[in-house]
Design goal:
This protein has helices at about 15-20, 30-35, 50-60, 65-75, 75-95, 105-115, 130-145, 160-165, 175, 195-210, 230-240, 250-290, 295, 300-320, 325-350, 360-370; strands at about 25, 40-45, 100, 150-155, 215-220, 225, 230, 245, 350-355. It is of the alpha/beta class. It starts with 13 loop residues before the first helix and ends with a helix.
């Protein structure tokens, strides 16, 4: 981009922006960005949190004009040059992108003006974050209203996520939430904010519907996936959607849980925190997951499971042997998860339209799409 580059118009075509994953500059303050933004947005703020707070206080006490003047004073000289250069660098690297602020008002207008003065014309999004967020919330509501959904249920460890991975029309709620959904589902990396979770889910649905999909498969989830909450309208719908039940042997489930929650999770912690810290952090996290359900387990059962888990962890950390983990996994399934799921299965029996092993369930769900 140069001073002679043609400027693209500002846009309110949110559908196009999200369908094509267009790069975005979020000029809001870091505290606003941390509450949630969009998957392709980077935070290059016009003002820091402290600067924004000062301007906000000034606005309340002395009005808009005084606040604008204070803002220009706070963001001037070298500070202003550095921020404009950061925007310009992004704009040159992403000539198809846009910038936005909260409502498409003053902050994005100022950012756009300063960029133009620097010889880098760059369009902004009309309506800003608020309008885009409203558009995405409506996309979820629209999908719930107009599309068909089938749920995949099953006991813990039957491989419901593996089923979803084999289906072109599956929407992975746990993937969007970066959490496996159970009491032991926390990953080595943090979950997104609630807003970021909802935005990513809405964009996923938008793209699938644009490609012609109108029937989606979801895992049967509780309202909370870790600390991410399934949107209310979708979760209310999930209480009535038809259910496909996935079966597997206890031993198959034990092996899958061992792989997902012990072997793979430990590897995640090692990747994130290194070979020395990672295994220790994994061990602490695993024991904390068990401690989180102490009230539901009861003190005696919890103590027994914790002792087995500690012994298994000591052996794993000493020589990599994970065999002992099977003991607490089998006991936890037998004493805690399976009775809970047996009760749920009884409540949901009337909605079950098919039941089978992983291969049978995948074949059935694929055939549903073809026949639908």
């Amino acid at each position: 981009m140069s001073k002679h580059a043609p400027s693209r118009p500002d846009s309110a075509d949110y559908r196009e922006i999200f369908l094509h994953d267009l790069p975005l500059i979020d000029t809001r303050a870091p505290v606003e960005f941390s509450k949630g933004s969009f998957p392709t947005a980077v935070n290059l703020p016009l003002m820091t949190d402290i600067e924004r707070q000062k301007v906000g206080t000034c606005y309340k006490q002395r009005g808009q004009q005084a606040a604008i003047e204070l803002g220009h004073t706070l963001v001037s000289g070298e500070t202003k040059l550095a921020r404009v250069e950061a925007w310009a660098e992004f704009a040159r690297a992403h000539p198809d992108g846009y910038l936005f602020c909260f409502r498409g008002g003053l902050r994005s207008q100022i950012s756009q003006q300063w960029l133009r003065e620097a010889g880098v014309p760059y369009p902004r999004i009309q309506g800003g974050y608020k309008a885009m967020r409203t558009f995405l919330i409506e996309e979820i509501e629209s999908a719930v209203r107009d599309c068909a959904f089938t749920l995949v249920g099953g006991m813990t460890g039957t491989g419901k996520t593996e089923v979803l991975a084999q289906l072109a029309n599956a929407v992975d709620l746990e993937g969007h939430a970066n959490h496996r959904g159970s009491s032991f589902g926390k990953r080595a990396t943090p979950q997104p904010s609630q807003i970021a979770f909802e935005n990513a889910l809405a964009i996923d649905l938008l793209k699938r519907r644009a490609a012609g999909q109108q029937h989606f498969v979801l895992e049967d989830e509780s309202r909370l996936i870790g600390r991410c909450s399934v949107p209310l309208s979708l979760h209310q719908g999930m209480r009535g959607y038809p259910l496909v039940w996935l079966d597997d042997s206890v031993e198959g489930r034990v092996e899958r849980i061992l792989k997902d929650y012990v072997v793979d999770l430990c590897a995640e912690y090692v990747e994130q925190h290194g070979a020395e810290q990672g295994p220790q952090m994994f061990a602490k996290a695993l024991r904390q997951n068990l401690a989180n359900i102490v009230k539901r387990l009861g003190g005696e059962r919890y103590g027994e499971l914790d002792n087995i888990m500690q012994e298994a962890l000591q052996r794993q950390l000493a020589d990599g042997d994970v065999d002992r983990h099977r003991d607490w996994i089998r006991k936890l399934l037998n004493d805690y998860y399976d009775p809970m799921y047996d009760y749920q299965l009884e409540q949901k029996a009337g909605r079950i339209i098919f039941r089978g092993n992983q291969r049978e369930v995948v074949e059935y769900l694929r055939a549903q799409v073809v026949s639908g």
